[in-house]
């Protein structure tokens, strides 16, 4: 009787795992199957044309802009915030408040960020529907990710490093940027790469703050679409699954590269360090 | 004579020390400010979204209960009721949890406990990778495959329906649930398993009666994260929901969850209509807070 039950459960486990893998393989497989026909040099690096035979270069550029701007702001702020929480702060009400705020920011859905960006950056600060509005909104979205990953990697720096450095008569600040931050670097870097993935995958918040203009952005103050938003819009407006899937391939490949480099960096640098 | 240069020397050191201290103090404050930015952001978000969303009820004489329980959403006729969307969001999230969580958890258990190492080494990173794929692509897949399938096999006029939303969301939450749950199951100390096996429990019995309960808090986190993804998802849902403004009575009805209502109408809404979309956002936000709180309570109760 027990044996029968065990076998039944075991079958169930195999079945569930098989189902998960099958579904996920089907999705990725379908996107590659459907979109591969469109992938060409001209598709990725060609200018967009409404007739449909153009490329997606403007969207690639927009995506790069949003990643660059939001990381330029979020990286220093996030790292320094994590340094404060891990190295400087005394445990107390203030730290609890900061942690509570960071955790709450993680839980807010992207569409609410979009609403906030639309009323604060677009309307109140008069930045308009633009790449800069979207990037500032994204900055807040990735900030908790960067803070958390940096904190995690600061935690892995052995206590003895700090003690050794301080015992040599260095100040706290010198210890921080000569000893602690370099040893925490691999973790911080892979955190940054993961934030890039988060920015690339974001759609709702960008949709409400950057608008949907399908053209090469002339500056960071113009409205534009990122790859993900473009993929959504061609599906919704034109039902062009093939084009959406082709953009999907580009997105998946970028995410793949980012993930591999994150793993690579943390492995490589860790080895070099210890 | 000799005391003069010495004095100068100590003064010099004192000066450089002073500068050092000032720099220390300044950097400490700078770090504190950076850390406070997340608090400031949260406050700004809450203030702006709530201010905009509460305005019609505080200043324009709309009743909040009519908004919450009204079943008509006709902005051109000044009718703002979001009950159909609340129900659609609830159904879609619960449905996705019912399908996605058991499959996700069983897969996580399989990967952590049953699967041969060589297989787990390939599948785990692959699933992890899928958690990072833009959710829009899940919507594209849903529209291209799931929607036509439902249309043909259930005889629907329109395949975009509640059941399509549930399926897409369930698939979308799978990678998150699997990855987080697997990590927590792997973190259960080996001694737990050994102890249980030594007492004569079967390997499968050990997994379900010892290992899984020990990983409960991590599993709870997995469910909360998966649920958060499902309830907050917008763009993928627009593609497969159909977006009709009716209270769903069956799985095959076309629905419009809270999130999609905001995204669909923000583009052209202004005045009271726009403020009502912010109010929709507040309801969504409160929804997530309540669900998270409830699940946290359930898991902490189970812990006692």
UniProtKB/TrEMBL annotation, chain A:
Family of this protein: Belongs to the binding-protein-dependent transport system permease family. CysTW subfamily.
Regions crossing the membrane: 12-33, 56-85, 97-121, 127-147, 204-223, 243-265
Protein keywords: Cell membrane, Membrane, Transmembrane, Transmembrane helix, Transport
GO BP of this protein: phosphate ion transmembrane transport
Domain ABC transmembrane type-1 intervals: 60-262
A single Gene Ontology CC term: plasma membrane
Annotated protein name in UniProt: Phosphate transport system permease protein PstA
Keyword rRNA-binding listed: no
Superkingdom to which the source organism belongs: Bacteria
Origin species: Robertmurraya siralis
A GO molecular-function annotation: phosphate transmembrane transporter activity
Bilayer topology annotation: Multi-pass membrane protein
Localization in the cell: Cell membrane
Record-linked PROSITE patterns: ABC_TM1
TrEMBL record, chain B:
GO cellular component, one term: plasma membrane
Domain ABC transmembrane type-1: 86-295
Main location: membrane
Superkingdom of source: Bacteria
PROSITE patterns per record: ABC_TM1
Keyword terms: Cell membrane, Membrane, Phosphate transport, Transmembrane, Transmembrane helix, Transport
One Pfam family hit: BPD_transp_1
Membrane topology value: Multi-pass membrane protein
A Gene Ontology biological process term: phosphate ion transport
Transmembrane segments: 28-51, 82-115, 127-150, 162-181, 230-251, 276-295
GO molecular function, one term: phosphate transmembrane transporter activity
Subcellular location: Cell membrane
Keyword check for Hydrolase: no
Entries under NCBIfam families matching the protein: phosphate_pstC
Functional note: Part of the binding-protein-dependent transport system for phosphate; probably responsible for the translocation of the substrate across the membrane.
Family statement: Belongs to the binding-protein-dependent transport system permease family. CysTW subfamily.
Protein name per Swiss-Prot or TrEMBL: Phosphate transport system permease protein
Source organism of the structure: Robertmurraya siralis
């Amino acid at each position: 009787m027990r044996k029968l039950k065990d076998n039944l459960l075991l079958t169930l486990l195999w079945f569930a795992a098989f189902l998960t893998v099958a579904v996920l393989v089907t999705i990725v497989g379908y996107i590659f199957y459907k979109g591969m026909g469109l992938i060409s040099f001209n598709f990725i690096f060609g200018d967009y044309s409404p007739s449909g035979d153009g490329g997606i270069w403007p969207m690639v550029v927009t995506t790069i802009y949003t990643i660059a701007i939001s990381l330029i702001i979020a990286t220093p702020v996030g790292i320094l915030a994590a340094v404060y929480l891990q190295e400087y702060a005394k445990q107390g009400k203030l730290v609890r408040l900061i942690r509570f705020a960071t955790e709450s920011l993680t839980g807010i859905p992207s569409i609410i960020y979009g609403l906030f960006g639309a009323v604060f950056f677009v309307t109140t600060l008069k930045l308009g529907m633009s790449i800069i509005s979207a990037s500032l909104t994204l900055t807040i979205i990735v900030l908790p990710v960067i803070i958390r990953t940096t904190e995690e990697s600061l935690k892995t720096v052995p206590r003895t490093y700090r003690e050794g450095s301080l015992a040599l008569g260095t100040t706290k600040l010198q210890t921080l940027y000569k000893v602690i931050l370099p040893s925490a670097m691999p973790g911080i870097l892979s955190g940054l790469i993961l934030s890039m993935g988060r920015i690339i995958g974001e759609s709702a918040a960008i949709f409400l703050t950057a608008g949907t203009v399908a053209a090469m952005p002339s500056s960071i103050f113009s409205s534009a679409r990122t790859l993900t938003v473009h993929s959504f819009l061609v599906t919704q407006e034109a039902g062009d699954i093939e084009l959406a899937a082709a953009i999907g391939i580009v997105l998946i490949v970028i995410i793949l590269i980012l993930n591999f480099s994150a793993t690579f960096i943390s492995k490589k640098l860790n080895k070099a360090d210890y | 004579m000799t005391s003069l240069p010495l004095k100068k020397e100590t003064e010099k050191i004192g000066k450089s020390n002073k500068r050092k201290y000032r720099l220390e103090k300044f950097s400490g404050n700078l770090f504190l400010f950076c850390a406070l930015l997340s608090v400031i952001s949260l406050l700004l978000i809450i203030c702006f979204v709530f201010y905009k969303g509460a305005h019609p009820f505080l200043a324009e004489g709309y009743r909040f209960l009519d908004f919450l329980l009204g079943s008509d959403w006709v902005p051109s006729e000044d009718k703002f009721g979001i009950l159909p969307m609340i129900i659609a969001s609830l159904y879609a999230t619960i449905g996705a949890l019912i399908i996605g969580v058991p499959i996700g958890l069983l897969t996580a258990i399989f990967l952590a406990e049953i699967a041969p190492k060589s297989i787990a080494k390939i599948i785990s990173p692959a699933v992890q990778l899928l958690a990072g794929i833009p959710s829009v692509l899940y919507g594209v897949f849903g529209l291209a495959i799931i929607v036509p399938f439902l249309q043909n096999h259930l005889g629907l006029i329109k395949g975009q329906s509640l059941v399509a939303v549930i399926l897409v969301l369930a698939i979308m939450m799978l990678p998150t649930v699997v990855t987080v749950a697997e990590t927590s199951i792997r973190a259960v100390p080996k001694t737990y398993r050994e102890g249980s096996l030594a007492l004569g429990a079967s390997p499968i019995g050990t997994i379900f009666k010892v290992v899984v309960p020990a990983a409960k808090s991590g599993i709870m986190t997995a469910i909360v994260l998966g649920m958060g993804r499902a309830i907050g998802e917008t763009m993928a849902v627009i593609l497969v929901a159909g977006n009709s403004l009716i209270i769903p009575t069956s799985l095959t009805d076309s629905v419009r969850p809270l999130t999609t209502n905001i995204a669909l109408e923000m583009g052209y809404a202004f005045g009271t209509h726009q403020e009502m979309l912010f109010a929709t956002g507040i309801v969504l936000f409160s929804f997530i807070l309540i669900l998270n709180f409830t699940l946290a309570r359930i898991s902490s109760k189970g812990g006692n």
